[in-house]
Amino acid sequence: MTATPGGITPAMLAPARTSDARRFGRVEPDGTVYLIRGTDEVRVGQWVAGTPEQGLAFYARRYDDLMVEIDLLARRLREGRGSTEDAQTLIAKAKAALATPDFVGDCEALTRRCDELSASIESRRVAAQAEKAARKTQAAARRTAIVVEAESLADATNWKVAGDRLRDLLEEWKTAPHGDKGPEQALWKRFSAARSNFERRRKQHFSQVDAERKEASSAKESIISEAEKLATSTDWVNGAKAFRTLVDRWKLAPRAQRSADDRLWARFKAAQDSFFDAKNAAATEAEEALRPNVEAKAALAAEAEGLLPITDAKAAKAALRSIQSRWDAVGDVPRAERERVEGRLRKVEEALRALEADRWKKDNPEARARAEATVAAFQISVDKLSKELANAKAKANDAAVTKAENALASSQPLLEAAKRALEEFGG
């Protein structure tokens, strides 16, 4: 191959290593360049553009270029920046050059550098595989954690929080690093199943809630319909009872959606208020109609109070009966005045009953006989104790004296009380 100077290479920028070139090559006077490889010589080219030394230096620079490329790529691989594909291409290029040399240089050194570069490639490949495996492991761990959390939420009933979290987990899944396709697909199936289970349960729940709310609305619409019919009733007693029943039914009915429930309650309350406002207005009007009776009953109460203090029960009873008859004829009074007015008559009635009870007690022969018997019994006991005390004193028996005195001290008050009870019968 005839050689002439070409483009500038990295080796050309460095001084030519002439001693190495002469060691591993030579140039014939006719310009033929040989590579010395061990005991063999291989023709590598023909130099015609200058002196033999220049020709030898030219082919030596080709060798240097190849060695510089290998050194640069080896350093880049060590730094983690080089491409193993570029390195393999360069090794193939170097091995092709060794098979059909077009340079002058140390073939054994070039072979060693190729072997070292191959070892670096293998080391880099192993490290890359380890890094890839670690990334896949981390990716699998992250996606597994996403799936496990999703499965823990599949049976949740806190629909808002769990639903938001599952959506966040889906976004995390989309941005998570990828691992092996098969295991990742299996994890996706688990994740998808967890989400589907949650969504199915959530839809069932809210479907049931909607059905219950519709049922609640229907039940409350029925209650409202009854309430609105009652709103114009003037049957105050039965109407009030009916409204109490409707309120109880309302409380037992399930709740509708909050806004709907509020609107339904407002309608029911309006009907209820309409009835009770009318009822209260009617009661106020009726109370006012009774107000003239207050003066009439007050006069009757004053007439009854004129019987006090009662000394003649029979005459007082006849007079009070007449007052009571006229009292009933007057009719009711307003609620606010009722206790005050009726209380005055009640005091006179109570005084008459107390007098009659006292008279009956005094005229009761059985009660009088029991009182007399009680006095007699206590009197016998006191008389006996008095004799015992006198005997004990006569005998100067201090112990017996003390005993009789104590017994007498207990019995004497009982005798006095029995005598007072008998006196109530006029005895």
TrEMBL record:
Record flagged with keyword Coiled coil: yes
Protein name: Unannotated protein
Residue ranges that the Swiss-Prot or TrEMBL entry lists as coiled coil: 338-402
Keyword Coiled coil: yes
Pfam families named among the record's database cross-references: DUF349 (PF03993)
Keyword field: Coiled coil
